[in-house]
Design goal:
The chain is built from ten helices and 18 strands. 48% of the residues are buried. This is NAD/NADP dependent alcohol dehydrogenase. Pfam families: ADH_N, ADH_zinc_N.
């Protein structure tokens, strides 16, 4: 096969032309990577609720037409002239949290965020240089949080990918790009859950079950799963949940139930839904003095929570995390943990579809018929 290095690649992608419209499988053009970029052949892409939020307009920052998707694995097709960390043929995971490694955020050990992530409005939908590598039918197509993985080929900026070991199955580890990692890091990196503690996990999707798994790995002995879907009860046990509460089963707020059954409140709570009401309940469910609430779910843009300052004055800790506090260069360690059977990944994947069935995948997500769907290419 002739080399495609340095050439425009024509391939298929799932393009969203306007907000809240179905994906359309189109032939697109993908430009070669520039100096500090790589072009990647996507092997598998996870379907994430954040993609759904963008699709239906809850994420107001997304520009259309766009190629969504941000959770994926692939093989490096070509690299820009200034790339030294990977070469053609290397296996990588996409990362929606960039690392320039030069800004004050990147130089701080206390955060995984980067100034480059906080783009001004005019920069949203573009690579770091302010342009996109995608076009379709003569029109510019915008990129999504630096990744755009619902396409056979994409281009990633340096600092928005992780090189991973070649013996790890790309179809499986694709979901370590976001969902599992985002939830798992809450108790491991942010709360640093202590052995013997009591934890409540609000929302038992991929992120929530990742959080439950993190609580178990950290040695929590009581992990309470909170979800309105009773079907989550059994699968949650696989990831460490040993008690289940459905808020609809009680005539009092769920935080009052949790405080009652734990005799004062949980040691830790993790909000994994992205609901303001649930954020408030999660904070109120932890004990005074030492309780910690971690917000992991992405709430609708502009939403505001009502927090009584006394909740914090009396010692509760209220914090959050992005991608579980992991930097891109730390994700290969999670792949190692998976290969060494320290963490579960396969168990999260309940559906596998070809990427041309992307609309079916999102219908299943909306209907709660799948935990994690992976699209293959």
């Amino acid at each position: 096969m002739a080399s495609t290095k340095g050439k425009v690649i024509k391939c298929r992608a799932a393009v969203v032309w306007k907000v809240n419209t179905p994906y359309s499988i189109e032939e697109i053009e993908v430009a070669p990577p520039k100096a500090k970029e790589i072009r990647v052949k996507i092997i598998a892409a996870g379907v994430c609720r954040s993609d759904l939020s963008a699709l239906v307009g809850l994420n107001k920052k997304v520009r259309f037409p766009a190629i969504l998707g941000h959770e994926a694995s692939g093989i490096v097709e070509s690299v820009g002239s200034d790339i030294t960390s990977v070469k053609e043929g290397d296996h990588v995971l996409a990362s929606f949290v960039p690392q320039c490694n030069n800004c004050k955020f990147c130089k701080s050990p206390g955060t995984n965020l980067c100034v480059g992530f906080m783009k001004p409005p005019e920069g949203i939908g573009y690579m770091f240089d302010g342009t996109t590598r995608f076009s379709c039918k003569g029109k510019e197509v915008y990129q999504f949080i630096g990744c755009s993985t619902f396409t056979e080929y994409t281009v990633l900026d340096d600092g928005q990918f992780s090189k991973v070991r070649r013996d790890a199955p790309l179809e499986k580890i694709s979901i370590l790009s976001c969902g599992v990692t985002t939830g798992y890091g809450g108790p491991v990196n942010i709360a640093k859950v202590k052995p013997g503690s009591t934890c409540a996990v609000f929302g038992l999707g991929t992120v929530g079950l990742g959080a439950a798994m993190g609580c178990r790995v950290q040695g929590a002995t009581r992990i309470i799963g909170v979800d309105v879907n009773n079907d989550k009860r059994e699968i949650a046990k696989t990831f460490g949940v040993n008690e289940f509460c459905n808020p609809n089963d009680y005539d009092k707020p769920i935080q009052e139930v949790l405080k009652e059954i734990t005799q004062g409140g949980c040691d830790y709570s993790f909000e994994c839904i992205g609901s303001i009401k649930v954020v408030e309940a999660a904070l109120d469910s932890v004990k005074l003095g030492t309780g910690t609430c971690v917000v992991i779910g992405v709430t609708p843009a502009g939403a505001k929570a009502s927090i009584d300052p006394y909740q914090l004055l009396f010692g509760r800790v209220f914090t959050g995390c992005y991608l579980g506090g992991y930097r891109a260069q730390q994700v290969p360690g999670l792949v190692d943990d998976y290969m060494n059977k320290k963490i579960m990944v396969d168990e999260f994947i309940t559906s596998t579809l070809h990427f041309t069935e992307v609309n079916k995948a999102f219908d299943m997500l909306k209907e709660g018929k799948t935990l994690k769907t992976v699209l293959t290419f």
